[in-house]
Queue: 2 jobs
Job 1
Amino acid sequence: MIYRRKLGLVFITSLLFTFLIGGIAFSQGSSGTIVKKAYVLLNEGYYIAEGVVTVENGIVVDCTIDEINTMLFWANFNQNKITKDEIAAFGEENTFTAMFDFHGEVVPTKFAKYVQVGDRIFEAGHTAKGYILYKSEETGDVIPFFEKSDGHMEWFFKEMRAGNFWFLKKKGAGFEKFEIASFFKDVPGKPLEKGKSQNKKYRVHWNNWEPNIYKIELFLKRNGFIKGTFVVNKDKIWTVADAVTGATITEFPEYAGVLYEAYEK
């Protein structure tokens, strides 16, 4: 299941996947520099993508996409490769087991029971079907909280970029912050500042993810937000109004769509 917000997606079950866009032009009639942002929740809420479009004097001059893991991913012991020594220091009483669906592979998985982002403390729980969720007093279940507002997802991005996220270890009536090694490494294991460790552009994602993202960014920067449909051709390359983007990523409608949504603001 993929979460999508306000993107108007229409799928056709064949080689044609179509994203309908209406009334979008390359430039806008305004002066000065305007930075526009939009967000979309992806893959069961494990990631949030941010689209940023910079417009100068009505002309698009830059387009960027970033994607950051949510706590449903970075508080997952398997995905974040927490070590046995770290688990021992953390304490089993501070863990929580729930079902985790990773691209169709559903397995019982251990998570941090409590995490903190910014000044908000989240506690792990599970859905009626046993799948992981995180909730706080201020937000409730974090996934509907994200879905309610781009501002909520922007808050999350800001705190994650600042490195303001932690596991929490119960201590008396309160908590103490607990760091793990992977918060300061990329996926291959090289040192990386904490605020970048959960960002796909820095931590290293699957092969061709980053090249595909750059192709989307470059295409829209060069061609603008042209009116048309998103269609994958016989060579499995995405096109927009018959213009070839070079991107082959399955989630093209979500990634390109979040930039279109930002541009339209």
Job 2
Amino acid sequence: MIFITLMILNTYFFLMINLVQRILLAKTNVFRPFYLTQAVLPGIRSRRSGTIASISRIAVNTPTYSLYTASKFSLEGFSEVLSKEISEFGISTLIIEPGAFRTNFLYAIKASEKGIPEAYRGTTADQVFNRFKAVAGKQIGDPVKAAERMRGTGRATEGQDLRLVLGKDVHARITAKIEQQQRDMEAAREVTFSTDL
């Protein structure tokens, strides 16, 4: 199994990162996976087997993470379409969506060196940052078990699934997002079906 996994080890308050950090974010989460996939694809295509895996994140839809979320949506969209393009060669694509695992990840979260701008104090951005600091070291997920599942241990549907959701917390968030999308579609049903010739 070939894993193409890219994670940001130090994350930032994305409302406040500078231009260089934004470019690094795009390179890490968007362009490097594209180039790496392009580089390994001929070899695994000739073997007609393998898995190209990418890491998404629980932070999707978290306020203050709009740039990070955009980069992850890009990677997920790429992976979804890639799965349709390479499945006939016996290659599967896997989007790994981990929840909160007890690693050092949250300890690395920091605001910009200037701190939170006055305009954002007491806002959702401030609350999210403080919540992350409060849960660091208290996450319920076991990183060893997550790594085992990523490598395939305990996955009964290997090669048949596009997404591997790891953790009760992220399962609940994804379920809530799907339910919200269904409510949005239902609320707009009349308008949606009113556009035919």
